[in-house]
């Protein structure tokens, strides 16, 4: 299995702080699963122009190939104008419609206030559903007040991140076992 942690913002520190914390715990808890962080802040991603994702090069090809090869994807997104950032939407636009088929996706949303709690539900989940992802039902919502000096200070948030890790890996493994059992029924 392969896991990708996608920090979907080109600005700010809350999302990357959350994703880095999640990745660190993931590597400790699941050392046999290959894991990598993709931070859009450090990458030069082309704007989607309708080409096949394999026709791009450099950072754009790297990101799209890593997402297509992953079994588990954690997506971290800040809330901008009551939605996801354009940089994250652009990554989705670079990929084929069924890019997340047979992939399990966990979500982490950051926002300045609790008023934006449903952005993950109303903005991000429909895109992932359209792209055929197996979405972990509960996501982690993190407010600005939960992170100080690039450190998660709220133990409840850390507990929810731990639960998201477990739920995502268990769901991914369960799907993998079901698909394998189904495929084993056929002789070819």
From TrEMBL:
Molecular function via GO: oxidoreductase activity
Leader sequence segment: none
Keyword match Methyltransferase: no
Entry-linked Gene3D superfamilies: 3.40.50.360
Keywords for the protein's UniProt record, in alphabetical order: Flavoprotein, FMN, Oxidoreductase
Organism: Vagococcus silagei
InterPro entries: Flavoprotein-like_sf, FMN_Rdtase-like_dom, NAD(P)H-dep_FMN_reductase
Organism domain of life: Bacteria
Domain NADPH-dependent FMN reductase-like: 1-142
Keyword Flavoprotein: yes
High-level lineage: Bacteria, Bacillati, Bacillota, Bacilli, Lactobacillales
Protein name, entry field: NAD(P)H-dependent oxidoreductase
Pfam families: FMN_red (PF03358)
């Amino acid at each position: 299995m392969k896991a990708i942690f996608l920090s979907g913002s080109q600005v700010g520190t809350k999302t990357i702080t959350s994703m880095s914390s999640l990745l660190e715990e993931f590597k400790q808890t699941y050392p046999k699963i290959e894991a990598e962080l993709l931070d859009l802040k450090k990458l030069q991603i082309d704007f989607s122009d309708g080409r096949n994702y394999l026709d791009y090069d450099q950072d754009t090809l790297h990101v799209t190939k890593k997402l297509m090869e992953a079994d588990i994807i954690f997506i971290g997104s800040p809330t901008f104008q009551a939605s996801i950032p354009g940089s994250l939407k652009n990554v989705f636009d670079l990929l084929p419609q069924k890019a997340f088929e047979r992939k399990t996706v966990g979500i982490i949303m950051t926002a300045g206030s609790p008023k934006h709690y449903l952005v993950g539900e109303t903005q991000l989940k429909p895109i992932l559903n359209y792209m055929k992802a197996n979405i972990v039902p509960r996501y982690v919502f993190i407010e600005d007040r939960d992170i100080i000096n690039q450190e998660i200070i709220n133990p409840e948030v850390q507990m929810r991140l731990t639960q998201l890790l477990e739920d995502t890996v268990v769901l991914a493994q369960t799907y993998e076992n079901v698909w394998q059992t189904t495929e084993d029924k056929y002789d070819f």
